[in-house]
Write a structure and sequence with these properties.
Elements lengths: L3 E8 L2 H14 L3 E4 L3 E7 L2 E9 L4 E8 L5 H17 L5 E4 L3 H4 L2 H26 L4 E2 L8 E2 L6 E3 L2 E3 L1 H11 L1 H8 L9 H14 L10 H20 L7 H11 L24 E6 L2 E6 L3 E4 L4 E4 L7 E9 L14 E8 L2 E10 L5 E10 L2 E10 L1 H13 L2 E2 L6 H12 L3 H9 L8 H14 L2 H9 L9 H13 L3 H14 L4 H11 L12 H14 L5 E3 L10 E5 L7 E7 L20 E8 L9 H20 L8 E3 L12 E5 L10 E3 L5 E10 L1 H10 L1 H7 L24
Parallel strand pairs: 7-9, 24-28
Antiparallel strand pairs: 1-5, 1-6, 2-3, 3-4, 4-5, 8-11, 9-10, 11-12, 12-20, 13-14, 14-15, 15-19, 16-17, 17-18, 18-19, 21-22, 22-23, 23-24, 25-26, 26-28, 27-28
Helix pairs in contact: 1-2, 4-5, 5-6, 7-8, 8-9, 11-12, 12-13, 13-14, 13-15, 14-15, 15-16, 16-17, 20-21
Amino acid sequence: MSIGFRLTTKCKSISSFQKLLDVVAARHEASVSHTEDYSELSVCRLGNIFFNYEQEEDDIAVIGDCQTNLLGAGFHKAAIDIVDELVELRDFSTEVEDDTEYYEHRDFERMRSEHFYRWLNAIVELCRERMKENCSMSAICWDCNKYMPRGIEGTVVSPFGRICPEHLVERIKDEGIERLASEFFMWNNEERDALFYRNTALSALWEDCYFMPSARSEEDMEINSFIIENLEKAAAMDTSLAFPKEDYLLLCRLVEKEPVDVSALPDFISEFPIGYRKDKVTYTLGNLKFDLPGNYLYFEEDDSRGYYDGEDENWHVVRMLAYSMPDDEADYLEDDENVLIEEKFFENGKYRLYDLGGEEDSDEYVCQCQIITEHQFTLFTLSCEGKDEAMGFSADFIDHLTATKTNKHDKLLQQIEQWNADDEEQKIIDAILKVPEEERTAELTGLLARSYNNQGNYNEAIEQLLSVKEECKEDALWFYRLGYAYYYLNQLDKAQKAFERSLELDPSDEDAKEYIENCKNGVLPHNPEMYEEEELDALEAHIDKFFGHSDHVFHEIASPDIHVDIFIVEPTAERNYYTLVTSGMGAHRMNVPKELAEYKLERAEIVVYLPADWNISDHEEKNYWPLRWLKILARLPLEEDSWLGWGHSVPNGKPFAENTQLSSVLLINPENVEEGAAVCQLPNGEEVNFYQMIPLYEEEVNFKIQNGAETLLGKMGEISAVVDIHRLNVCEGFGRPKE
């Protein structure tokens, strides 16, 4: 779930291309750094364009990549402006693939609303969903390799501050997405305006500021000065913009700088105190996690690395060392000289804490902590001013140790969350079903049920959930998913009981409360557009007369907008192929252009012919895609507020399945039928038009777009009306693909 663009070009020399980047960066208030393999062009804080270089036969391939969703539409535009200048100065051709299509249409407002605001809405919903599954804190767009802020239940960490998803949902309802976007995105508008500088400073305050005197280190001086500079720019540009006065004045004191007058500025109100490093943060070392005050600085020396606070009095230094090793070799170091303070187990690990004492002529006192976790030995040396401080600091340090243990499904779980974010539910289902049932955990089964729910396959979701009923008696999420499935099957009594149990286990779940009210009030989940009974009778009679009698109908379980069934007409001696016909698309009157109103094209159904050996009941994509596309086409006019008719083509963007290169569909009048099959007369005088779905290759749909459907169909005269996944490609220069 990301937004960005990719750039590909070539160059003769890496050094010459890097010099070009230097020139362009200087013109756009950007900085750039280079290595032999890549360049990084920094447009603003957290906003970078990366260029990788790959040697080819005669030239060097340049691949540029830029992720923009975190910073906002303004950064996307600024980065594209830089690309424009690069393209203008290049001798080689350059291709740009822009997720937002801004590179082609240059409509900033369209890009911002259709992509960045939509992304922010999706992120808020994703966070809320994850909070239901695990009430502990999670993070979005966060570099976990640096540190992790202190966990606060019900909140999510981001580079722009700690947020509560439930509150953001309410804000979006009350204020609209634009208000939230102006605070969440660093660069939401086209220019580097006051909002840009204020939000840049806020991001740095939250993530990087140590809130320590600049005299302590160059790092403190740099971050303090950066924040102050950006805040003062914002205040000078817009005196009506909310301003974090308290933190600004604190930094001015730490820098020993006279602040500008901010008394007349409105105060920026934050739900949580600004600055993760004001509190303890968690670092990761291999599979070990440990906590330290957020204001500690990292250091690396010739023989050690660690963290220190830089205090002149009551100082602390933490040095660390870690090794990977087999579990059967992991053991404590032999130590008969020093005093063993304690030996204990903690979550997924164990430790020994030793008193190493102090030197006679020094106030330094040292403790040592030896830690054993899965496949890892870790050594911490904790130095403080005085014995009492060393003992207290060490006790607090070991009290917050945790370690992770390898879960053989960890990678799968991470991949599942990514697929879920990308709406790739079928990939989740396929991956989990490959795990043997005896190895499938209740968590995996619950995620499988979630994907079935998201696909509208509620009966299968219920079956999966009930298979782990005993393990999930106290799991609020299990009952929520069960209630969700029952609700969308219109079984309101069962749904209400499940939601009520879910709410007992998690009283903060507002969604469960809403579903319970819906169940009590008899509010059904869907109220789809449907044919009147007389209309449906006429339609079914028409299908029976012209396309064949159907004893088998794929009934749709959940119908949020229209109810689309698929009639299956079995192969016969006269028609040795399956005939599939939709029933329900025509209940919705399409938005046909006014100039075509006299032709009665508002209502339609779709037909497709499949070979007699096609596995109709198989749900693998190689067999299911024609049925999927019947449903896609049936709903497309409703979703797009448009229409479908003869000669219209719809691309998939990639082959329908791994066993074919067909990738688009074309609608034509039904073939192999008697006259009159193309139009069904309804009792009220309206008409339902029947169109046949013909799969096309990419070259064929491109030819159709350039030359028209009639010209393409003229080239397809010898092609069977029955789908052949390996048929001849009728465009010039293409033959029959290999099976």
